[in-house]
Design brief:
By secondary structure, the protein is mainly α. It has helices at 6-10, 32-38. The chain has a domain at 17-48. The longest helix has 7 residues, at 32-38. The two termini are 43 Å apart.
Length: 56
């Protein structure tokens, strides 16, 4: 078994790469209590929990 210098090995590869598209949020909640309850001030980001799993 070879001895590896892990720092040298991992420096050759990026840690992570991501693509995040720009979000164009056009509206905000006027009722701040509703925004607080939904967890966002942007109605486009409101994703209610349906209680189901994300599997087919």
């Amino acid at each position: 078994m070879q001895d590896y210098n892990f720092n040298e090995y991992f420096d050759r590869f990026p840690l992570a790469m991501a693509y995040v598209p720009w979000q164009h949020l056009t509206q905000i909640y006027e009722d701040l209590d509703k925004a607080f309850c939904t967890g966002t001030i942007f109605p486009e980001l409101t994703k209610p929990f349906t209680g189901r799993r994300c599997v087919k």
